[in-house]
Amino acid sequence: MAQRTKRIPGARPFLKWAGGKSQLLGEFCKYLPAGNLKNKTITRYVEPFLGGGAVFFYLSRRFSFEQCTVCDVNEELILTYRVIRKSLHHLIGELETLESAYRAKNERQKELYYYEIRDAFNRVRPIINFQYYNARWIERAAQIIFLNHTCYNGLFRVNRNGGFNVPFGRYRNPEILSVDNLVEVAALLESTRIIRGDFTQCRKYVDDQTFVYFDPPYRPLNVTSSFTSYSRNGFSENDQRRLAKLFKELDRKGATIMLSNSDPGNEKPGDSFFDDLYDGYTIRRVPAKRMINCNGARRGTVNELLITNYGTKGA
Ligand SMILES: C[S@@+](CC[C@H](N)C(=O)[O-])C[C@H]1O[C@@H](n2cnc3c(N)ncnc32)[C@H](O)[C@@H]1O
Q1: Whole-prediction pTM value?
Q2: Is 295's pLDDT higher than 70?
Q3: Nearest by Cα to 283 from 254, 247, 252, 255
Q4: What is the pLDDT of residues 194-215, one digit of tens each?
């Protein structure tokens, strides 16, 4: 059974994210390099597949690092993190406007309002310059947070053209704006390097005092699980191999590394893709509660792979 985590003040994820690890923290924390985190022989933290940042926020509430580097290929996501860091008060103002307009409406009007914001968000996309910070980013970050909290299942899913296509979610009272948390997140991000791009960009920030956590997109085993969730570009088996190469390179540099992925054995017993790729490292299978496909009968406890280049240094 998942261990309950003690509530510690500090920043928490502000977006719901497909593949988010909040539910798994109780299991993961047993296998962190806790000794080295506590005695500060680890001074840096690098997370190349940030998403909603469940592990980043979890660690930042418990340990202090001299330097954190986070990265994700999803430009809308990274835009949002950067806006929180740079224009928090302006962002809060935008979110207050969205939230009060939403709350003043009845159910039917809320749904129409949701689609109005979603359409506006998609219409503007072609003229957004994701490269350089600009005023449009603030409204966009507010829309992302709003849509993420009011859409069905709290997903961020886009179509081939990058259009956000998740339908309205019928929530009684969704939390759209949490000022206290955004203030905490902004304070944490102030000293965090935020990179938009491929995971390999992180390599130069890793040394022998760095803890690296890799949480790549799952390797799809069938058509139903290969949903276009985070971005238009999927993560292929070849990308999984590129990642294993980087894992080994950083291992040789002396970094402390943890990587998670879904266990292919959940669906295809005997599939040894990751066992082969990470042969020689510590490979654990930890229980995870999540949906492995659209068939409700197959929901329940499945395993998550946890691969580390250190042994049994548990918390
Ligand atoms: C499983 S999710 C991470 C979830 C995160 N740990 C959390 O708790 O929310 C994987 C993330 O990898 C990102 N991603 C996909 N391909 C990538 C790449 N080539 N380089 C960096 N990030 C990538 C996706 O945008 C997604 O946010």
Answers
A1: 0.91
A2: no
A3: 247
A4: 999 999 999 999 999 999 999 9
**From CA 56, how far away is CA 140, in angstroms rounded?**
23
Helix spans in the chain (H): 25-28, 34-38, 54-62, 75-86, 88-103, 107-124, 136-150, 179-189, 237-253, 273-277
Q: Which atom of ligand 1 is least distant from the CA of 21?
A: 8
- Cα–Cα distance between 133 and 15 in angstroms, integer? 21
With cut-offs at 50, 70 and 90, classify the pLDDT of residue 156: confident
C-alpha span between 49 and 20 (Å, rounded): 11
Exposure string over 112-143, b if 16+ CB within 10 A, otherwise e = ebbeebbeebbeebeebeeeeeeeebbbbbbb
Residue located nearest, by CA, to atom 26 of ligand 1: 51
Pocket test of ligand 1: the residue of 24, 56, 80, 230 to mutate, having most ligand atoms within 8 Å of its CB, is 230
Q: Which residue has the higher pLDDT, 288 or 289?
A: 288
> Which residues make beta-bridge pairs with 301?
289
Give dist(CA 235, CA 66) in Å, integer. 31
Give, as one character, the DSSP assignment of residue 164: B
Spell out the domains of the chain, with CATH numbers in brackets: 22-73+197-308 (3.40.50.150), 77-178 (1.10.1020.10)
**pLDDT at 299 (0 to 100):** 55
